[in-house]
Specification:
Layout (H helix, E strand, L loop, with lengths): L1 E7 L5 H16 L6 E5 L5 E4 L10 H6 L3 E4 L7 E3 L2 E8 L10 H18 L4 E4 L23 E4 L2 E11 L2 E9 L16 H14 L3 H5 L5 H16 L1 E5 L4 H15 L2 H4 L3
Parallel strand pairs: 1-2, 1-11, 3-4
Antiparallel strand pairs: 2-6, 3-5, 6-10, 7-8, 8-9, 9-10
Helix pairs in contact: 1-7, 3-6
């Protein structure tokens, strides 16, 4: 069995969540940490932007009026509003068997575990390989859950899990979101649109193309139930044996540095 570390952290601010993922990646790159699955949540709600997404996609006044925060991810992709969800991050070296090979090869392996997890929750999910952007979805679209990706997890044709991967010299980081409940279209309240008609159109597109666990199941599911399904799926599908762990003092200290110097700082968040 392949031994990984399992970390479950309590709901936290977006800057800290992103800093922790990078701190773990750095420590894995030095050989100071096992491959890690981290399961977490966000408080308060936070809009995360992809690595190269323009900051002008954000409507700061609307965002702040709702008490939401904004952060820029290490990974690519488009905007996600993190609230009422289970977030996962997988971090390991490029030599780790589950992460070896190309981006798509590793993405596909992890998608098998994600698929098994949501299937075990009673959801009629499918995994479809997307050839690329279709229809009215373009690279300029600010919303992650509208944009199809390879090996995406869908329910009745609607996207359920949004994931993104970054490959750095230290190793591989993939993280993603499983929306559990709530109104997915809330994200449109925090994004900039040409006019209110364009905002309303984005809301309707999102309703057609994405869903939550509660909507798909017709009932609510707790964060803890979803987390246990993820743990079992990674063990079963990927042959992983988890050691329940926590951040080392070094990882925690580095995460706090990254919050101050990067993820909570405009030089990073507003750099594009």
């Amino acid at each position: 069995m392949n031994t990984w570390r399992l970390i479950i952290t309590p709901p936290a601010r977006g800057a800290w969540n992103m800093a922790v993922d990078e701190a773990i990646l750095e420590h894995i790159g030095r050989g100071d940490a096992l491959p890690t699955l981290r399961l977490y949540a966000w408080d308060p709600a936070c809009l995360s932007l992809g690595h190269a997404q323009p900051f002008t996609d954000v409507d700061l006044a609307r965002l702040r009026a709702r008490g939401w925060e904004v952060v820029r991810r290490l990974t690519g992709g488009r905007a996600i509003l993190h609230t009422d969800e289970l977030t996962y991050s997988v971090t390991g070296s490029a030599a780790e068997p589950m992460l070896a090979g190309s981006v798509l090869e590793s993405y596909n392996r992890l998608a098998q575990a994600l698929l098994f997890a949501v299937e075990s929750l009673g959801l009629p999910v499918e995994m479809k390989e997307a050839a690329g952007h279709t229809g009215s979805v373009t690279n300029a679209n600010p919303v992650c859950f509208e944009v199809p990706s390879s090996y995406e997890i869908t329910v009745n044709g609607k996207k359920l899990i949004g994931s993104a991967q970054a490959r750095k010299k230290e190793g591989v980081l993939q993280h993603g979101s499983l929306p559990l409940t709530g109104d997915l279209t809330r994200i449109c309240l925090a994004l900039a649109f040409e006019n209110e008609s364009a905002r309303a159109d984005a809301v309707q597109r999102l309703l057609r193309r994405a869903t939550t666990v509660e909507s798909a199941l017709g009932g609510a599911l707790t964060w803890e139930t979803a987390a246990q399904a993820f743990i079992r799926a990674f063990e079963t599908q990927l042959g992983i044996c988890f050691e329940r762990g926590k951040l080392s003092e070094s990882e925690s200290g580095r995460a706090e540095e990254l919050v101050r110097e990067k993820y909570a700082h405009p030089s990073w968040t507003e750099r594009v």
